[in-house]
Each structure stands twice: as C-alpha cells, then as structure tokens.
Amino acid sequence: PSAPLYSPARVRQLLTQHGLRPTKSLGQNFLIDGNILRAIAEAGLSGGPAQGTPVLEIGPGLGVLTREIATRGAQVTALEKDEKLRPVLAETLAGLDVQVVWGDALDFDYASLPPGTRVVANLPYYITGVLLSRFMHAPAIVSATVLVQKEVGQRLASKPGDDNYGFLSALAALYGSVRHVRDVPKGAFFPAPDVTSSVIRLDFDRSAPLPPRELLKFIESALGHRRKTLRNNLRMIGHQGAAIDAALEALGLRPDVRAEDVPLDTLRDLAGRLGVLG
Ligand code: SAM
C-alpha cells in the first residue's frame, strides 16, 4: 500500500476495518506523525547498538511506534491491555520479531525483564506517574524514553525551588537524569489530546544502589503537602517538633523552610538526623 501505516488515512482505515474506535479511558491517542515516531525511536535507542537491544513498549496500540523500533533491530516486548487490538497488531506487526504480551502494565512483573532493557513508549497518560516509578524501581531498566504530557515532562525535569518541583522530580533525580527531547503538538495524534506533550528520556544510574524504601517514603511525605512547611509535614508523619527543630538548625535550614526548596542531598541528611535511615 502507498501511504505509511501512521498516516491519518491509514490509521482511520485500520480502525474502521476492525470496527474499532479509540478508547478514551485507555488513553488511546495514536501517533500519526512520522517525524515524531522516528524521533522517539532514535532518542530511545541512541547511546548503544540498536541491534538486539531489549526494548519494552507499553501500549503498542496500532503498532506504529513498535514497527519503528523493531525495524531498527531492537528486540521488542510490547505490553498491551486492550485485547480488541489483537487482529490489528497481527496485521501491522506481521513478519517482525516482536513479542506482544496481553495484559495490564500495572500488573506486569518488571523484575522479569532482561538486564539493559530500554523502555520506549507513548504512555497511556492516566497512569504515567505510576509507570514511571515502576520503571525507576526496576534495576533491569536502564532508560525510559516516553511521551508524556508536557506538564509532567516539566515536573520531571524541575529542580528544588522551581514552581512545579515535587515528588516525581525528586524521584527522577534520585534515580538518574532527565533530558527533554522535544515537544509534540496535539496534532501529532489521532484523536488529538487536550494538551501538548513532550518526549522525555530518563537515564537511570544502575551502578548506584537503589534508594532505601524509608528514604523514598520520607521524601514523599516531606514533599507531600505543597505550601506547608517541611516542619509541619514531618510532624504529620510523627516526628517530634524539638527533634525537627534541632535537625533543621544543624543543617542551616530556616524553621519555616518548605520541602520543595530543599536540595535532595540535604533532605537525605535530614532523614539521617531524624533516624529514618536506620
Ligand atoms: N503506541 C501507540 C501510538 O503511539 O500510537 C498507542 C499509544 S496510546 C497513547 C496508549 C496505549 O496504551 C493504548 O494502546 C492503550 O490501549 C494502552 N494501554 C492503556 N492502558 C494500559 C495498561 N494499563 N496496560 C497496558 N497498556 C495500556
């Protein structure tokens, strides 16, 4: 056939032919822009040989991004929840070395992935945050190149003191580094989503030990209630006022400092002083 698979005409035709409509509750916004597809695949596979690299894709949908990755030689596992897409993927991925796993990405065992796995995906936006934290906690995953809402991309890349700095930003910094690859306009999708998107690449530092669970919980609670003081948030999780005051003072922090203005290393020191790290 003449037009590429991702062209708006082919995408509509594929859906009609299989009697399907994009399901909003599953975050189905399909990519229809070849330049964006190539940019995601390239950013996801750069920095190593594509040939044989294990890639995990969440939500292959109609298979357009999957094809883009698989034709570059990567070993793709594609995890899709919507079983109605079975006949579509059988058609669009025919002849390619792709393993489609039917199931929910929230139930997937990320520990079963081969070491060195890269995630490349146009994520279902309703579960972006949970999925990103699953990727971070899975030592086999070395990077995640994902399409997310622009606002989530900004949060991921924020530093302490920035407007939208929060737990997700802290997590990203704890596990590695974040790069903004490019913005993606609404028109690159069918149907068009409500907001602009961004391609983000997260690289995880797997030589460092995973942060202890206690530290993650501490940081999450500290950053939990924005606009409240750090002192107040720590009181809420049971720390004594006097102990907090002493620790803040020892670290040169004002008693009314807010957690989102405190550097991560200082929060870690604070956790240590409050006996959180055992
Ligand atoms: N990769 C395709 C593309 O770029 O055109 C589709 C991306 S679409 C934004 C998100 C995909 O994730 C859909 O195919 C949807 O069915 C799938 N999905 C939604 N929730 C899921 C879940 N919990 N587990 C696995 N896949 C899911």
Question: Can you walk me through this structure?
Answer:
This protein has 278 residues and is of the alpha/beta class. 36% of the residues lie in helices and 19% in strands. It is built from 11 helices and 9 strands. It has helices at 8-17, 34-45, 64-70, 86-92, 128-137, 150-157, 167-175, 213-222, 230-236, 241-250, 264-273; strands spanning 30-31, 54-58, 75-80, 98-102, 117-122, 141-149, 176-184, 189-190, 197-204. It has a 7-stranded mixed beta sheet, with helices on both faces. Strand 5 (117-122), helix 5 (128-137) and strand 6 form a beta-alpha-beta unit. Helix 5 (128-137) runs parallel beside helix 7 (167-175). It is elongated and about 70 Å long. The termini are far apart. The model has no long low-confidence stretch (mean pLDDT 96). S-adenosylmethionine binds at residues 26-31, 58-62, 64-65, 79-82, 104-106, 122, 124, 127. Residues 36-206 form the Ribosomal RNA adenine methylase transferase N-terminal domain. This is Ribosomal RNA small subunit methyltransferase A. Keywords: Cytoplasm, Methyltransferase, RNA-binding, rRNA processing, S-adenosyl-L-methionine, Transferase.
> Which residues sit in consecutive blocks of at least 5 with pLDDT less than 50?
none
The averaged pLDDT comes out at 96
**Count of distinct strands:** 9
The fraction of residues in strands falls at 15-25%
Order of helices and strands: HEHEHEHEEHEHHEEEHHHH
How large, in whole angstroms, is the Cα Rg? 21 Å
Major pleated sheet? 7 strands, mixed
Q: Which class best fits the helix and strand makeup?
A: alpha/beta
Shape: elongated
- What is the terminal-to-terminal distance? 63 Å
Helix fraction by DSSP (H/I, runs of at least 4) = 25-40%
Order of strands across the main sheet: 4-3-2-5-6-9-7
Oligomer state equals single chain
Query: What's the total helix number?
Result: 11
What small molecules are bound in this structure? S-adenosylmethionine
